Fold this sequence. Notes:
Layout: E1 2-10, E2 15-19, E3 25-30, H1 36-46, E4 63-71, E5 76-82, E6 93-99, E7 114-115, H2 116-127, H3 149-153, E8 157-158, H4 178-189, H5 197-225, H6 228-241, H7 255-266, H8 276-327, H9 357-444, H10 449-470, H11 473-498, E9 506-510, E10 515-520, E11 523-526, H12 533-553, E12 561-565, H13 575-580, H14 589-609, E13 614-619, H15 626-631, E14 632-636, H16 646-650
Parallel strand pairs: 3-13, 3-14, 8-12, 12-13
Antiparallel strand pairs: 1-2, 1-4, 4-5, 5-6, 6-7, 9-10, 10-11
Helix pairs in contact: 5-9, 5-10, 6-7, 6-9, 7-9, 8-9, 11-12, 12-14
Amino acid sequence: MQIRSIILYSKSGEKRVLDFRLGELNIVTGTSKTGKSAVLDIVDYCLGRDEATLPISPIFNTVAWYAVILQLPDTRIFAARPAPSTGAKSVTNAMLEVGNDLGVPERADLRINTDSTQLRQQIGRRLGIGDTRSEPPSGSLAKPLSAHLGHATLLCLQNQDEVDSKRFLFHRQSERGIPESLKATLPYFLGAVPEDQAALQQQLQQARRALRSAENRLKAAQEANQGVEAQLQSLLGEARVHGLLTQDGFSSSDRDAVIGALQQASSFRPARPGGDEEQRRQEILLTEQSAALRRQLRSLAEERQLLNDLESQAAGYQGAVTRGMSRLSALNLVPDAFPGEQSCPLCGSGLAEPDPTVAAMHTTLQDLRSQLDSVQTVQPRREQALREIEQAAVRLREELRGIEGALSIIAEQRSEQAGLLGQAEAQAYTRGRINAYLSQISATNDSGHLQRLETDVAVAQQLVASLEEQLDSEAIDDKLTHSLSFISGKMTSHARFLKLEHGDGLVRLNLKKLTVVTDKPEGATELLRIGSGENHVGYHLVAHLALHQYLVANGRPVPRFLMLDQPTQPYYPSDMAKARGRLEDIPLDEDRVTVTHLFQLMHQVVTELAPDFQIIVSDHADLPHDWYQASVRYNWRGGEKLIPTTWLDTNPATP
Length: 655
């Protein structure tokens, strides 16, 4: 995938189209503040970067959409993004179109039809990036990482503050999370990790689970087959103890005979007592009769108590009447010829006033005698009633004792039955153990069962080994070492061509630290410890050219372009020199040679890989060589810029 065009759409509908040659070195040269550096940011943004890094200025505020046309071997892709609004830190909206002969659409035809994530996935899929999820190490809290176009783009861009850095080699390497992403995805882009790594890892996890399951089944079958005879004899003795065997003296060493006896014991069913229901019915009836007799006895006791109370009251009344009659017994001294109420009862002399007391006393005495006779008449009947109550109570108590005796007998019978139920429970428990064990050994008793389980384990082991071989870390390391060796050879050759400091040794790429290392007899030196910005630029160029040479040679799914912004900035000492960009503006002859060699190296690599690789360079340099001038696509001097200044006139309201 290479860049055919970069398009800017103004808010008034105008277009600025930058066309680039495929498979060649494309140079955009010019003075400062002409928009050269924004070319790289526009490509980064159009390929799905959410963070808005485009310049903020009146001239850039006139842009409504940014777009690129990408060329693939069999089709073209139009990827466009709306310009970030003022103050926006990120944008996710996007437009994506695919076609064999796509041209530059008009501003009115632009529309949002996807987001940045889908844009990366769609372009990455057409680029050939497969399902490459990288599983984190066991116990890590990191999430699985899937390679996408954004990771591939990190290998294709070098901003002006990155191309001469001694600390960071790759695009956006200084940002949080990017180093980890580079370390996780670079082995895949270099071809050391299989294309279908994620699918293979998932298959391996499933195969390992299947293997553990098969091994567990085999182990259980083997353990069950060991000590079967002893366990069978133990169960046989237990069945005999609990009365599950009809033949008490049964004994055999033959497994089949013992299993047959245990099967018979497991089907043993104890006879349930036939009188359970009748006994329960009788118990309920006797309990009800006992309760009725007790109620009758309580009623007789209450009647007896009532009669006793009446007798006590009658005795007290009789005593009171008798005492009253005793006091009135003096009336017996009064003569029979009682003179009447007008005379004294003792001397018979006449009374001035009549005295009715004597007559009243006689009347009272007669009443008391009558009442005493009534009480004495009732007493024999009450005594008879008490005797009848006592006799009835004696009869009821006899009946109650008989019923309670019957209930006691029933309770004893139930206690005996409870013992039988306990035995039945023990028998049921033993039958359950026998059934469980017989079902367990039913499969292992089959001579071919263990062989089938062993075969299952062997097949599962073979599948796991095959998948592990495809994902073998040592094999991956070997492939990675081979890739890095190829890249190292190219880097060493390029470094010697540029005559970089420490370049006479072995130059290599260190993926663990994401930097360049030079190896010499006296030791290894990292880029961080190599001085001067000129060397830093040189090693950045060396590393990225060698990396893309390997990627192209091996058909890896990475865009076939490299964008460099201001690689010669360390060589031009002043704004005037940068504005002209001529070789004579560089004071030292050796620096002039080095600048020329930088572009010569780019031109040589592009020519070697043509038409499969493209380089786009934005720089101050304007070298006089014919091959250089033939590579210049845009020279923004004398008022020429990325965005025409006339756009300000057509967008007067733009802040």
